[in-house]
Amino acid sequence: MTYKVTGLDRSRFAPLFVLDDEALARHGARRVVADADHGFPCRVTLEDARAGESLLLVNHASNRSDGPYHSAFAVFVREDAGEAARYVDALPPVFIGRPLGIRAYDAVGDLVAARLSTSEATHEDSIRELLADPRVDHLDAHNAAHGCFAARIDRYRSEA
Questions:
Q1: Which InterPro entries match (predicted)?
Q2: How many structural domains does the chain have?
Q3: Cα–Cα dist 41/141, whole Å
Q4: Could you say which of 23, 46, 65, 122 has the lowest number of CB atoms within 10 Å?
């Protein structure tokens, strides 16, 4: 099963980048500066920000279902992020070295299945196994320890 991992669209957060700290707080967001080269995973570029880079810490609804599986949590977005990252049959850098909870949702946003994946080797196996289920519309990967949304994963269909 071929899959693609996609970062969030930066334009969704663009209006926040111009706000001062007080205005960000009114939106439930804050500006942070990475103090290490690991631990500040940008959800647009799907890479860790480097020490000294500015990011926004914002709430993101990864599953906007009206049902009981609605899900939202804090994510980092680099202020200088470009286009959303896209990986086909490859794991993005933010998956490497992090255990993941991989959640499979149907088309209405109900949870169909989930896997705890502890290494890069099992990430790919879990992704392919879950996407093989015809009930599954898409997957959401979350960092297992902190619970934050990592990336959306879909079946890949050639655009040619």
A1: DUF1203
A2: 1
A3: 13
A4: 23
Question: Domain residues for 128?
Answer: 3-155
Read off the tokens for 34: 């990475």
Hey, what are 107's tokens? 């088309």
d(CA 93, CA 78): 15
> Do 23 and 31 touch, CB atoms closer than 8 A?
no
In which element (H, E) is residue 121 found?
helix 120-131
DSSP result, 27-72: TT-EEEE-SSSSS-BBTTT-SBPPTT-EEEEEEEEEE--SSTT-EE
Q: What is the pLDDT of residue 140?
A: 96
DSSP state of 85: P
- 89 within some domain: yes
On whether residue 70 sits in a domain, the answer given is yes
Q: Which two tokens stand for residue 44?
A: 């647009």
Does the predicted model carry a pTM greater than 0.70? yes
8-state DSSP, 124:
H
